């Protein structure tokens, strides 16, 4: 993919969005029969499946914690999910993303209710289009709720970045590759930030504005996550397509 000359033309991004717009988002809760909870998510060109198992017995047993459940999160990018085939199996990037995503969700899970057990979250990226870690966290949060895991609230996530000196919500692939900054954020329903990473550079004023943009994005995602759960439990399993 060659570098576009400009990422913003006449105030619009190359995919036609304004700086504050999210890509189209479609959540579907409870899609996997053999998982305790699951969620399929399309977020722009990202296609993500999250599956949750547990609370269940811990193997190996020495990982058990006497007063809490342990939470494990595996982010995996399929070889066919990206333009240039990815070597299968974990790498430094996927290990890092698994760790920060687990931390983003762990604080809302009531782990103390299930001592000596494990809650396992698997996130498979079937198609990647920038923002896969935040897509994974959104899907995993719905899958945890679908599994009936007691939580204080849902966690929602989205990225903000800077392209052609403009702050933009929910980076697309070109903005992610050729932009000046990428700031993935996850937030719980109480407004507490549970993930904050940054690539590139922003001034402190830009950072404050970007954080507010991400918070607004997370609020929209939170509504869509709730709708997906209501849709499953109120009317049976059906996809929800919402343009934002
Ligand atoms: N990507 C890729 N091959 C890789 C890793 C990433 O093509 O091995 C692409 C993929 O589209 C991904 C994007 O680069 O969404 C940005 O990756 P980054 O590490 O910034 O994480 P993400 O934005 O997906 O959370």
Characterization of this structure:
- With 244 residues, this protein is of the alpha+beta class.
- The protein has a single domain, classed as 2-Layer Sandwich (Ribosomal Protein S5, domain 2).
- The protein is 28% helix and 30% strand.
- It is built from 4 helices and 12 strands; from the N terminus they run E-E-E-E-E-E-H-E-H-E-E-H-E-E-E-H.
- The chain has helices spanning 92-106, 132-146, 173-178, 204-235, and strands spanning 8-9, 12-13, 25-29, 37-43, 46-57, 70-77, 117-127, 155-163, 166-169, 181-188, 193-196, 199-200.
- Strand 8 and strand 9 (166-169) form a beta hairpin.
- Helix 1 (92-106) packs across helix 2 and helix 2 (132-146) packs parallel to helix 4 (204-235).
- The longest helix has 32 residues, at 204-235.
- The radius of gyration is 18 Å and the shape is globular.
- The mean pLDDT is 95.
- Uridine-5'-diphosphate binds next to helix 2 and helix 3.
């Amino acid at each position: 993919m060659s570098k576009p000359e400009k990422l913003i033309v006449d105030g619009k991004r190359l995919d036609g969005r304004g700086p504050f717009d999210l890509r189209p988002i479609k959540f579907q809760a409870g899609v996997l029969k053999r998982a305790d909870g699951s969620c399929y998510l399309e977020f722009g060109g990202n296609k993500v499946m999250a599956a949750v198992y547990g609370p269940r017995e811990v193997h190996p047993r020495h990982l058990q914690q006497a007063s809490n459940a342990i939470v494990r999160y595996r982010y995996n990018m399929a070889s066919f999910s990206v333009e240039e085939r990815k070597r299968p199996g974990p790498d430094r990037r996927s290990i890092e993303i698994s760790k920060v995503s687990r931390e983003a969700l762990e604080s809302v899970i009531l782990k103390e209710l299930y001592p000596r057990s494990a809650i396992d979250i698997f996130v498979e990226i079937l198609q990647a289009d920038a923002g896969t870690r935040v897509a994974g966290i959104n899907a995993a949060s719905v899958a945890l709720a679908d599994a009936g895991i007691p939580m204080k609230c849902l966690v929602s996530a989205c990225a903000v970045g800077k392209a052609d000196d403009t702050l933009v919500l929910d980076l697309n692939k070109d903005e992610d590759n050729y932009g000046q900054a990428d700031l993935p954020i996850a937030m719980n329903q109480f407004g507490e930030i549970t993930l904050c990473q940054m690539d590139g550079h922003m001034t402190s004023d830009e950072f404050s504005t970007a954080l507010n943009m991400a918070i607004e994005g997370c609020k929209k995602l939170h509504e869509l996550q709730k709708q997906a759960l209501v849709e499953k439990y109120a009317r049976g399993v059906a996809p929800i397509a919402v343009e934002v």
